[in-house]
Structure formats: C-alpha cells, structure tokens
Write a structure and sequence with these properties.
By secondary structure, the protein is an alpha/beta fold. The chain has two domains: about 55 residues; about 120 residues, Trna Endonuclease, Chain: A, domain 1 (3-Layer(aba) Sandwich), CATH 3.40.1350. It is about 55% helix and about 15% strand. The longest helix has 18 residues. The two termini are about 25 Å apart. It comes from Acidovorax soli. Pfam families: Mrr_cat.
Length: about 190
C-alpha cells in the first residue's frame, strides 16, 4: 500500500507553503522550548523540531527547482495552441522522463496508460482545452479504471473550470485533476 500524506496535516501544509515558513516554525518552537522548559530539557524541545526543519529543506529544494511563474504561463500558452497529437506526445515524454512506461490505447475514454512500479494510472486528456468540465468524462474515466483494475486516474485540463459535482466525484473515486499550472510543471519538469 502506498503511503499518502493527509492533505491538511502540518507537514503537507508546510510542503505547500514557502520554504521560509517551515524555518520560522522551527525558530518559534525552539525559542518557546528555551523559554518554557527547564534548561536541561530545552535542547530536547529544540531537537524535536528536526522533522519540521527537514520538511523546510524539502520545500526549499522543490521551490528552487520549480519553474518560474513566467515560464509556467509561457508553457500554458504553448500547450493551449498545440494540436492533440503534439500535446499527447508531450505528456508521454514528460512521464517517460519521470521513469514511467506509457501506452496509448486505441480507443475509449483513456488516452494514456501510465505505469510505474507496477501501479497503473489511466489518463484522460483529450478535453484539455474545454471551457467547462462536467462529471461525464470523469464517470467514463472511472468506469475504465474499474474495468482495468486501476486504482488511480488523472484527468488533464488546462482551461476552464471543473464543476463542484465533478470535483467531488473525482475526489471520491481516486481521480487526480491535473489543471493548468500542474500540467505546465509536469511538462517543464526535468528528469
């Protein structure tokens, strides 16, 4: 079973926050430990911040390697002008760079089958430029996931909004919605 961090846990929130927030939390906890604990135990309180310090280092590393907002916007503009075949090839190349094997099914709601470490993920990406995204393409993807025994799916979109019902359906059925900046970051990621 793959471990998944709770979305609202302290570590998950700190990973999504600017790197310096983690170090600020470490400083506050260390100062509080020094002020509130007996002198011989203050160092234990300060050492207890090590996991938060590590999360700060991970966040800093990720943010250092992340493409700039201007580069993300440039990539989104390029993606939105791509024809389907070129966009599909770009997605495939990005996942192959990440160490995945990618297959292109001949028909159906699944556009790509991405596998890594024995785990298959089905990807639906043909509606990437649609203005509105409802629940129906997600239902089709979920049906394909059930038929193939895939635990996860990815729905790719660069424009428009996902309806509230569709968002809830995706969350409840193991479907990750990869939207605009996420798509650009995937395509810009280095191996």
């Amino acid at each position: 079973m793959k471990f998944k961090m709770a979305e609202k846990s302290l570590f998950a929130v700190l990973l999504r926050s600017p790197w310096w927030v983690s170090f600020l939390v470490v400083g506050v906890i260390a100062l509080a430990a020094g002020a509130l604990l007996p002198r011989e135990y203050a160092y234990v309180g300060a050492v207890g911040t090590l996991p938060i310090f590590v999360v700060g280092c991970i966040a800093a590393w990720r943010q250092l390697r992340a493409p700039s907002p201007a580069r993300v916007e440039e990539m989104l503009g390029a993606v939105n002008s791509m024809p389907w075949r070129q966009f599909s090839d770009a997605l495939e190349a990005a996942w192959v760079r990440d160490g995945c094997t990618v297959e292109k099914p001949k028909s159906g709601p699944v556009d790509l089958r991405v596998a890594k470490g024995g785990q298959a993920t089905l990807v639906s990406a043909k509606r990437w430029k649609a203005a509105t995204h409802g629940i129906e393409p997600l239902r089709e993807l979920q049906a394909a996931m059930q038929a193939e025994g895939a635990a996860t799916g990815i729905y790719v979109m660069t424009q428009g909004q996902l309806s509230d019902n569709a968002r809830l359906f995706a969350r409840d059925n193991g479907i990750t919605v990869l939207q605009g900046p996420g798509v650009a970051n995937l395509l810009l990621a280095k191996a």
